[in-house]
Amino acid sequence: MTTRWLTPEEQRAWRAYIAASLLLEDAIDRQLQQDAGMPHLYYSILSVLSESPERRLRMTDLAERLKITRSRLTYAVTRLEKDGLLRREACRYDKRGSIAALTDEGFAMLERAAPGHVDTVRSFLFDRLSEEQVGQLEEISAAIAQGLQEDGARPTADEVPWRRRSSPTCS
Amino acid sequence: MTTRWLTPEEQRAWRAYIAASLLLEDAIDRQLQQDAGMPHLYYSILSVLSESPERRLRMTDLAERLKITRSRLTYAVTRLEKDGLLRREACRYDKRGSIAALTDEGFAMLERAAPGHVDTVRSFLFDRLSEEQVGQLEEISAAIAQGLQEDGARPTADEVPWRRRSSPTCS
DNA sequence: TAGGTTTGTTTCAAACTTGAACCAAGCCCG
DNA sequence: CGGGCTTGGTTCAAGTTTGAAACAAACCTA
After folding, report:
1. Do the Cβ atoms of A21 and B16 come within 8 Å?
2. Topology of domain A20-147, per CATH?
3. A13-41: pLDDT as tens digits
4. Given Cys at both, which of A46, B57, B131, B164 links B62, Cβ 3.0 to 4.6 Å?
């Protein structure tokens, strides 16, 4: 079958999207690096932890929520642990498991950095969009993410949504 | 002034967006790495070059179109040059300048890789969106990008849009 | 036209990411 | 029980990105 190339509209959308996502991630990374000394992903790790029961989560669950590989998470957590912002704990129920737990220092850092971060997201993203567009963005993103989660994005034959095992947090 | 936190709608949109952009870039990177042996950015460099007059562009212009730093571009171009996919040429009009020129081999590689890449973008992005959503995505992206280009995203006091100097390609 | 500033590009070290390989520990089933 | 397969996590080398510093050529301007 012969390739179906992108229409001009799709071309424009694709390029605009690429540019926007690069610029946005860049701006956010820069702000957080400046004000909190860490890139966006690392901030997100702390943020997700802070909202989890007991402020702790198993590595795999954390990686899944953040949509990153375990390997990448391991590296990040090692750094954050070195900085004292979180601590690794053993999992009582599964001796293979390790749990990332936000420290008080980590929580404090988050509280300190959050306002600046939110301001940035607001001024670069939400201040530019109408309320309607915010809704559209969510739907579009959800559609994309959904497509990428289920099928062969990260090909693991048996990782089917209705069979999620979602191990308990061990909390 | 006290921080204006994100509304629940904004929260959802933000998280969905982060997840989608991570997953999408990941999938595209993986496909291109597999099929063309290079990450998405590197493919984009070749692609932009292929559409430029004489298939060549000055480093700074290239960096500007791709929304990346010159430093990052230098590294990428060095690698691509090593692979024989492009060549660096001196700029006749400005001895500081250097020009990246797509080689025939680079163009051939692009022709070989393009169908697979387009398929991927289509199946992970455009096949999931209605025609309307494609338009919305473009507008949203354009709005974001615009905000990030003009003001202090990359703070260079005199880099004001109406004073763009956009040096000629030396072609 | 010399000297200072700006612009175009590269370099360098430190940080981060990737993917494959590895090592346990759980699980399964004879 | 006792292998063999799966799962949770880390490790390692190679590749990439970052930001600041270095350099050189071009552009003032007095």
Report:
1. no
2. Arc Repressor Mutant, subunit A (1.10.10)
3. 999 999 999 999 999 999 999 999 999 99
4. B57
